[in-house]
Description:
By secondary structure, this protein is mostly beta strands.
Amino acid sequence: ITYGERGLDFNTTENTFNYGGNIYKDYEENRPFDTGVKVGQGNKTTVFIADIQAGYLINPSTNLKAFASVIYRNFDPTQETLTAFKDSTTWFSFGIRSDIFNWYFDY
């Protein structure tokens, strides 16, 4: 599980300040404050990512496994803009994997 908060630039006509969300912008240009700057100011955005995986070993000699996983991602800015908008995504995956050519030799 991953949870975090970050501050993005608003990138609107009303607010063109550089809050540090884009590392390619000049930090001397359009700076909102000279003192009192904190991490996460600007368009405060929360990010939540959860991942769960399960597997079953079918054949130990070839390491053949069946697996499944679910990944959930939620991106939620305080104010939606053209570049930062609320989004939620869920991925499901399943399959089989093997280590057919995983040979070890002791010399």
